[in-house]
Amino acid sequence: MPSMKAHRQDSAPPNRRVPRRDGDLLFDADLSDLPQAMRWREWMGRVEAAIFAAPSPVTRDALTKLVGRDCNFDDLICDIRDDLRPRPYDLVLVAGGYQLRTKPRYADAIRVLNNDARAAGPPALTPTELLTVTAIAYLQPATRAELSRLAGKEISRDVIGRLKGLDLIAAGPRAPTPGAPYAYVTTRKFLEVFGLASLRDLPDIERLEDEGLLERPQPEADLDAVLFAEEEDLKEHWE
């Protein structure tokens, strides 16, 4: 049993809320009648259960509806993570919400059963697909022509279709260029599968190359130069 911050609080919340009725459910978020330690443990259970049952990441705003107004939500999340430390899954912040994910070292055990269970992480992608979705993440919105220039070869409609089918990218605004082609953006699912809370968490290009996740196309292109040139071009295009 971890040392909980709740134990350091001596008194019950002074401002008890009237239990609210959500549909036919009378829900008491404050739990003021419980001793502090039991209240804290119940809040932890509610938040963990809600995240466990959700098909997608659950936002902080949604989860705070399950606990009392005097609950320090950040401390609660820390205690849940401490509880999960010996378990085969973690509580992570992805795509703007919280989600339970199996730890990477159990990926092989999950795959060996071949029962449609899926370990956390991105789907299997070809080098061209990975380069394309990565470029879109950094340059978005980006057209297929812009992606082709970056890759040094044509990015086919099949590649775009495959990434759209996986819900990693979506059509964004039409570019203000001849023919008004669609520009593509990444999706919430992209953040989920790559374990990113937001696009601000994208790693730098050097790290991707060091980890072998971003292979330079043949003939080899100066990826950094192309990326930064594209950023400037896009700013000019979209201003």
Automatic annotation (TrEMBL):
<keyword id="KW-0963">Cytoplasm</keyword>
<feature type="region of interest" description="Disordered">
    <location>
        <begin position="1"/>
        <end position="22"/>
    </location>
</feature>
<dbReference type="GO" id="GO:0051301">
    <property type="term" value="P:cell division"/>
</dbReference>
<protein>
    <submittedName>
        <fullName>SMC-Scp complex subunit ScpB</fullName>
    </submittedName>
</protein>
<dbReference type="InterPro" id="IPR005234">
    <property type="entry name" value="ScpB_csome_segregation"/>
</dbReference>
<dbReference type="InterPro" id="IPR036390">
    <property type="entry name" value="WH_DNA-bd_sf"/>
</dbReference>
<keyword id="KW-0159">Chromosome partition</keyword>
<dbReference type="GO" id="GO:0051304">
    <property type="term" value="P:chromosome separation"/>
</dbReference>
<dbReference type="InterPro" id="IPR036388">
    <property type="entry name" value="WH-like_DNA-bd_sf"/>
</dbReference>
<dbReference type="Pfam" id="PF04079">
    <property type="entry name" value="SMC_ScpB"/>
</dbReference>
<keyword id="KW-0131">Cell cycle</keyword>
<keyword id="KW-0132">Cell division</keyword>
